[in-house]
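Inputs:
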Amino acid sequence: MEWLTRLMMPPVGSEFAKEIDFMYMGLFWLSVALFCIVALPPIYFAWRYRYKPGRVTPHITHNTPLEIVWTVVPLLLCVAIFFWGLKGWMEYAVAPGDAMEVQITAKKWLWQFEYPDGSRTINDLHVPVNKNVKFIMTSEDVIHDFFVPDMRVKHDIIPGRYTEVWFNPTAMGKHVITCAEYCGKGHSDMHGVLTVENDADFAKFLETGGTEWEDYFNGKDPKKTPADWGRVQYETKGCNSCHTLDGTKSKGPSWKGIWGKMETLNNGSKVLVDEAYVRESMMSPSAKVVNGFEPIMPSFQGLLKENQIKGLIAFIQSLQ
Amino acid sequence: MSTTSVDLQTHGHPAAHAGEHAHDPHHQHHFTTMEQQFDTSKIGMWLFLATEVLLFGGLFVGFGMMQARYPREFVEAHTHLVRWQGALNTVVLLISSFTMVLAVQAAKKSEKGKQVLFLGLTILCACIFLVVKYFEYSHKYEEGWLPGRFYSYKGDSIPACHAAPPGEAAAAAPAANAAPCTNGYATFFSFYFMMTGLHGFHILAGIAVLTWILFRAKRGEFSASYYTPVDLVGLYWHLVDLIWIYLFPLYYLIQ
Amino acid sequence: MSHPAELTAIPAHAHEHEHDHGGTGVYAKTLIGLLILTAITVAAASFDFGQGNVVIALFVATIKASLVVLFFMHLRWDKPVNAIIAMAGFLFLGVFIMFCLLDFNARNNYLPSNLHPVPDMPLAPGTAPAGEVLHTNPAAAAEGGEKK
Amino acid sequence: MDQGIATSPHIGDRPRPKKNYLNETKGFWSWAATLDHKRIGIMYLVGVLTSFLMGGIFALLVRLTLLTPSHKLFGKVLLTAEQYNRVFTLHGAIMVFLFIIPAIPASLGNFVLPLMLGAKDVAFPRLNLFSFYLWLTGAIMAIAAMVFGAVDTGWTFYTPYSTTTDGPVTLMTAAVFVLGFSSIFTGLNFIATVHKLRAPGMGWFDLPLFIWGIYATAIIQVLATPVLGITLVLLMLERSFGIGIFDPRIGGDPVLFQHFFWFYSHPAVYIMILPGMAIISELIPTFSQKTIFGYRAIAYSSVSLALVSFIVWGHHMFVAGQSQLATVVFSALTFLVAIPSGVKMFNWMLTMHKGNIKLDTPMLYAISFLTMFAIGGLTGIFLGTLATDVHLTDTYFVVAHFHYVMVGSTVTAFIGGLHYWWPKMTGRMYSEAWGRVGCALWNIGFNMTFLTQFFLGSKGMPRRYYNYLDQFQPLHAFSTVGSWILGLGLFITAAYLLASLRKPMDAPDNPWNGTTLEWKTSSPPIMHNFEEQPVLEREPYDYRPVLVAK
């Protein structure tokens, strides 16, 4: 009967998917049986008791025991199915504690994935095989729905709230990610690719910081310059909580016009704000603190990827 | 209607009833008796009132859920409503319900003068209610306590920006770019204007039908044998009162 | 077959019964009761019972509403079918409120409401202009997520 | 038409009266200002069938667009993505609000209900006419919205998409608001009528089961529709004033909208299916010439379905972000729906057992109903079950499921009922042979179109998709071909029914040997329904021969 399952269900991407397929096929055969019980007899009766002039029909108004049976038996069956479904659903609804967390931001009409180390990709999701992955999702505009048919999971993504979904992929290779909540013109094109790969490949993928940054450095799109990538980092890595862009003094020096300036440090010496200094300030910020500021900045050593540092430098450079 | 009531006679309706009720001009052809006609109208009216309950009910549910979402903002916004105005309107509406029920009683007893008097008093109360409402609304308008995107109150009681759940996410909130955040406050006044507005619209509609009934009463149309319209308008009017009975504590008292 | 329709079951003098109930005295007492309850609920509101204020206010309102329905709207003397209809309205409203609360009270996953527009990502062609699109700080979302 | 009915107890052949409701008065205003429930029913019938035609054309257009992944027909792109979104929205909105909700209660119900009760009219004839004009106003507003660019929100108007998208969304929601009130007044009228205008001797358990079904429907119409009204008002205000209830940008909650919407729209599913079940409960005993099995069980199951329908709406939102507690509770309650539905199926089945079954067109539709409703109901189990719903919801599986319930069941019953009462309404018999052809094509076409979509859905094809993966193409093509057969069947049905109107009146008063009161008057009925106030002497569906001798 495996061929029938494959006929009706998408490829199996996880153990959970296997369970769902089993349940689906169970319900399928139950439905076939119930269909035979309720829908075939009328057709048979229509032939068996076809019209004969003068035939007298019996006056049977009801049969209480029979009616009780066909009320109670389906009720019990329903209770059983409910608990069966509940069991599977609990697995879907409660993510294991050790799961790797991936942020999903959905918007018309693309998926943005962000990994714990800050690597980001667009429409290109990589996960390691046989590891629990939890997705924390929110939307920037309308409701979307993260649907991975091969994993048998989906959940709506709601603006203003975050929702979660998780799976443990077992099938290596590529799987379809698709939007299942109507979101307008590009709804049916809102696809992503899920790549399930081994740990080594996944580590390599993370090392380069995902794939989104490449779009900003290949010069293809005039709206995506390295400086734009830097602005993204400025806003998402927390730089903006201490550094302003308009020249006003905050907890740290404003970035406006800082590039190429000679700054006086708190020990009285001077330093030129260039690539080397900016890099150093990110990695070991307390080494050279500009006069008038507290040495409160944390080190971003290991928190920023090379492409992100490059982006930030380009961004600061652009703020003249 | 006129053609159909002529048909009634031609179709040989059971003669006994026709004799009994002596061709009441208000008797519609498809009812056997006036009694049946009256009861049917009542059922119809009660069904209509049930739909009204659910119509307003939707707003009550919306209010409740939004209050659950923005408890702090709602309580704070509550304080801008003037309690004595709400209380005054409550008393006015209760009295109008009383005069309405007396008008129905007068109709049942075929007392024309009392009918006109009590209906007039009911309309008067309704107008007083609207006058108080007018002062309330214009105050809100001046202060900028308006629904949704028209909310423009600049008072000090509303902080620049709220985080919900309160306090927890404050750390994550970037200091820069904190536009004044009226979420919750604006929603409260949206509901305030929608619910009192819909209620006020019902008062207006009530004044219209009461006036119509008043004129018919003046012409002496209602008596013990036929007072259905007075009764039905009465039911409607009491429902308007009843909805206010819930609106009053929800908006003016819970602070 | 054994259930005669109501129209045949109504006795001829049923009409006269309508005059028997109610009366100015009953209505006046009802009004006084309503006014007293209004005073009580206003007075109760000036004390702080915490959540109790809501309960008291709605409880008193329900008593008042019952008085209006029973006496002013004659449901005390009216045919049962009208009472059933009236109750059905409130019952289904109760169902509506109850299930919505079942959802809302169990929720814990709102984003901080300090959403602000940040044009951090290029927009797909045809989307709304940047100012209208909300950006939520994913880091903030994650923080909220861990705090539930 | 048939032999043997002359010996039946229920035949009452009288000479056809010269005057009937169709020719008693003439002219435009005699129809436009009529208070007669039969004429209002006919006007509704014309209206809903026109809407059905309109919605049907949009449906064929949707299917045709999905024939190939390139959406091309003779080298031209049939619909762009934006157009496609508008067309499926129009299909849904027209079919739901203009056609299927008023279809059975307002047209057939209006015509038959007072006749079955032995009444001269509905309780409030003027309100009845008013609700027809409300329907007409709503229809005109919907068409106006269509002309002004149409909306692309889907018939569910989910926020925040509906509050931010372009197009005349406000006008469209206003149209639906007006249509809602039309539905409320119809329901209100029917409840009052059933309570107070029953023929002498007719108790609650002597009511034909059609009346029970319509009565249960009316309860939902009256109690649920006002919430739709207020929901749409809130949506309009959100769009125009930003009141901050549904749009998260201004502090609202989109899931609250879904609660509001489904509080009405789930019971609305029963506004659609209960009248269909009601018709089937008439057709099966009549064409089996046998008393209904389990009268009370069917009557109670109608009312309990109506009541249960109010507490299961959350099953539309299992993955929509409602709390997990609510999800579990709603799933458990959802299974309650299965019980009364099952009870009805078993009762109909046992009614046919040992019957004397005439396979006339209405009965063929009734049997089609039984198979299609079985499929629609059983696939509902997949969706009510939490774990499988996660995979299946928002896919074509759902589309197929609700089409089996709304079209396969309700519309099948509607067409069956239309054939059943056609002689009564028009005084003419239609072509039986063509009727069978139409029914066969309907069955083949429908199952081809929608059985396929279960497979599409379980394979992971989301609904409301313009572009799809190439792997789904064969199934889509098969489904599209099915839709043509479906369309052909309906076209044939429309053709022979209209053709019958050109004949002189030839229908007997009681062509099917029915037992309910509408068969006691002439075909078509006279203006005030009955020559004399009918008095109920026999229970409905009483086919005992003992009484023939009497």
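Chain C has two domains: 11-104, 114-148. Flag for discussion at group meeting.
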